[in-house]
From TrEMBL:
Residue ranges, annotated region (Disordered): 1-24
GO MF annotations, alphabetized: dioxygenase activity; iron ion binding; L-ascorbic acid binding; oxidoreductase activity, acting on paired donors, with incorporation or reduction of molecular oxygen
Protein name: 2-oxoglutarate and Fe(II)-dependent oxygenase superfamily protein isoform 2
Organism per entry: Hibiscus syriacus
SMART domains documented for this protein: P4Hc
UniProt entry keywords in alphabetical sequence: Dioxygenase, Iron, Metal-binding, Oxidoreductase, Vitamin C
Gene3D superfamilies in UniProt: q2cbj1_9rhob like domain
Record-linked InterPro entries: Oxoglu/Fe-dep_dioxygenase_dom, Pro_4_hyd_alph
Length: 384
């Protein structure tokens, strides 16, 4: 999903299209009136765990949707709730998407049954060995002030913080290299992370899906609930996890684009490199993705190994050329099925879109000016 930038710096992008790739987007309204979800969640309800079950969709999806069940359903057994939600999802999700999802599961299972991990400790989330102590401490305290203590916000909605320990970065780089070596030796067909990157690997494909699910659920969702609630930050229930590689003999740069995510985590793993800065140009909804960048939306960011960048998926961005060396980044696109469905029914102002805000302010300015003119006319008439 790329956007072009003219030589003069004015964005003239091709509108990105949402990539519906079988991650289980939930339906709030179905063709049948029998099974429906509530528009507002029961925040006091503690959902069941659906881990360990043979499901077509992510277990986190069902846990997230359970809060949206009609009140009478909440006291039913887990199996009853599961069938109720599954019926909704299956009727909503097109058959083509379900077929692609099934093919993806079979593809992953084929890899996992043949690939031998190099560092098995990577496949289970171990916060004390993987994550920076300051980051773990802030998550455990789970307060906005704790998050802000470890973060900087160089531009509105873009947060940076120390996240990964060097040892974890080294292990993950080594594991990716081992997987790529295995792919080359076995001549196995590798699926690249997205349509824009020709180098890199999908981490979920060779067994790291569960670890990344835990990373999203236990560490990214608490932050997103505070800072990105307007785009479903509290209901993140699926992810797409991958690494991208940049260098002279790899991808050089990344065009101006938006992500297929509600919240994006981007962490530099290394190695030695120059260049490769990220540039951000404001958050936009589908209707305004082509609009020009305002001066206060411009941000350039230089990568530091182990340091994370967290932002809305709709925050327009790109990567400048990596001029020397080899840069590898971990990306986690975090998604919310509930938010994606609710967005279809949202007709008024999108609070997270910068251009929606500017249009609203302009309408208010014009309304105030018109009212003043009418009042002045009335006063003039009264005086005469």
């Amino acid at each position: 999903m790329s956007l072009e930038v003219t030589k003069k710096g004015t964005q003239k992008p091709t509108p990105p299209t949402a990539d519906r790739n079988g991650n289980g987007v939930a339906a709030l309204q179905c063709m049948s009136t029998n099974n429906r979800l509530r528009l507002n969640p029961n925040t006091e309800h503690k959902p069941e765990s659906y881990e360990g079950l043979q499901l077509e969709f992510s277990p986190l999806l069902f846990s997230s949707l359970e809060r949206y069940l009609p009140p009478p359903m909440l006291s039913h057994s887990r199996d009853s709730k599961l069938h109720y939600m599954r019926d909704i999802i299956l009727r909503y999700s097109p058959e083509g998407e379900r077929t692609r999802a099934q093919m993806q599961r079979e593809y992953r299972q084929k890899i996992i049954s043949h690939y031998q991990p190099l560092h098995k400790e990577l496949y289970t989330m171990n916060a004390s060995n993987f994550l920076a102590p300051s980051f773990v401490k802030a998550i455990n305290e789970n307060r906005e002030e704790s998050f802000r203590r470890i973060m900087t916000e160089p531009s509105q909605g873009v947060f940076t913080f120390e996240m990964l320990q060097p040892h974890f970065c080294e292990l993950l780089l080594s594991e990716v290299e081992n997987f790529e070596k295995w792919v080359h030796e076995t001549k196995f067909r590798i699926m690249r992370p997205n349509t824009m990157n020709k180098f890199g690997a999908v981490l979920d494909d060779f067994g790291l899906e569960t670890m990344l699910d835990k990373l999203m659920e236990d560490f990214i969702r608490p932050i997103s609930k505070v800072f990105f609630s307007d785009v479903g930050g509290s209901t993140l229930d699926s992810h797409h996890g991958f690494v991208v590689e940049y260098g002279i003999d790899r991808d050089i740069e990344l065009g101006f684009h938006v992500d297929d995510s509600e919240v994006t985590l981007n962490v530099c793993l290394g190695k030695q490199f120059t260049g490769g800065d990220l540039f951000f140009r404001g958050v936009r909804c589908d209707n305004h993705v082509n609009t020009e960048t305002q001066e206060d939306e411009v941000l350039d960011y230089s990568h530091v190994p182990g340091r994370a960048v967290l932002h809305r998926g709709r925050h327009r961005h790109g990567a400048r050329a990596t001029t020397t060396g080899h840069r590898v980044n971990l990306l986690l696109w975090c998604r919310s099925s509930v938010f994606r469905e609710l967005r279809k029914y949202q007709k008024d102002l999108l609070s997270w879109c910068g251009e929606c805000h500017r249009e609203k302010k302009e309408r208010q300015r014009i309304s105030i000016a018109t009212t003043k003119q009418e009042l002045l006319k009335e006063e003039g008439k009264a005086a005469t």
